[in-house]
Specification:
The protein has a single domain, classed as Aldolase class I (TIM Barrel, Alpha-Beta Barrel), CATH 3.20.20.70. 36% of the residues lie in helices and 18% in strands. It has 10 helices and 14 strands. Helix 6 packs across helix 7 (222-235). The longest helix is centred in the last third of the chain and has 15 residues, at 277-291. The structure holds succinic acid.
């Protein structure tokens, strides 16, 4: 059980700690997500799952760059029929909220996957409308306000659990898309997915990733993600925001709270460190709050706007 200083409520979910596992890292199996919970996460988000299985792109799918990773896995997953069993197993191991990340190629498909994930035990859903490189889904939906509205509204009409919408930073006006998601009924926003990027091998003279372009994560993108959270909070006062992008220390997490996030997601820092990064971040936040004579994380949410 977490300390009351660090526990919080977001979109109806109770978290013992403010850090969630971000989708895409260690989110495939019940056991790996359990390890992340043991490391101090307050909730976990699964790898994104679709109606039909997808094998993803050929290797190389990940490249380490200065202060980050660029990945283009291609949304590999076994399909919701098979993954439903993993959701059920996860619910027997994990007491903390299990948020299932889903995607589809139409609003109806998102809704079918949503229904199946919830029937298997998902406590909440995160709509991946922001993967920057898979065709006809992801950011092709999240960058288009009309499609985004339809997807969120259709899923909301299908399920009763909280629906988080993971936004793309690869847009001109993130506030417009955030407010579209809110108007369609989103219960919370996750800001943000990866930044579209490329790495080139100077010896071969060719792009390194098989897919050529991928998504940049890690410290290299932290201040872009932070700006996205700040912009959304400035215009949308009431929607809970989960900050995501390059968080690897308690100071990073606190910056996101001050910008307006109520919770944070961590992914790449686990790959560079271990799931225990959550414990280190939790301790740092707790010490910071004590030093400031504050009783909960909630007291610093959005403080940089005042
Ligand atoms: C991938 O599977 O290639 C990444 C998914 C994402 O960026 O949402």
């Amino acid at each position: 059980m977490g300390s009351s200083t660090l526990s919080l409520q977001i979109a109806g979910l109770s978290l013992d700690y403010p850090g969630m596992l971000a989708s895409g890292v260690l989110g495939y199996s019940a056991e790996s997500m359990f390890r992340v919970i043991e490391g101090g996460a307050g909730a976990v988000v699964t790898k994104s799952v679709s109606l039909q299985p997808r094998c993803g792109y050929a290797n190389p799918t990940v490249v380490q760059v200065k202060s980050g990773l660029i990945n283009a896995m291609g949304l590999p997953n076994p399909g919701i029929q098979v993954y439903a069993e993993e959701i059920r197993r996860s619910k027997t191991l994990i007491r903390q909220p299990l948020i299932v990340s889903i995607f589809g190629y139409s609003a109806e498909e998102y809704a079918v996957v949503a229904g199946k994930a919830v029937a298997a035990g998902a406590d909440a859903l995160e709509l991946n409308v922001s993967c920057p490189h898979v065709k006809q889904t992801g950011s092709e939906i999240g960058q288009n306000a009309a499609l985004l509205f339809e997807v969120v509204k259709t899923v909301k009409a299908t399920v009763k659990v909280p629906v988080f919408v993971k936004l793309s930073p690869n847009v001109t006006d993130i506030v417009h898309l955030a407010s579209t998601a809110v108007d369609a009924g989103a219960d919370a926003l996750t800001a943000v997915n990866t930044l579209r990027a490329i790495a080139i091998n100077v010896e071969t003279t060719r792009p390194i990733l098989n897919n050529i372009k991928g998504g940049l994560s890690g410290p290299a993108m932290k201040n872009v993600a932070l700006r996205c959270v700040y912009d959304i909070r400035e215009k949308l006062a009431n929607i809970p925001i989960v900050g995501c992008g390059g968080i690897s220390s308690w100071q990073d997490a606190v910056e996101f709270f001050l910008a307006g996030a109520s919770a944070v997601q961590i992914g790449t820092a686990i790959a560079f460190d271990s799931p225990k990064v959550f414990q280190t971040i939790n301790q740092g936040i707790e010490t910071y709050l004590k030093k400031k004579h504050l009783r909960s994380v909630n007291e610093i949410v959005g403080l940089s706007h005042h």
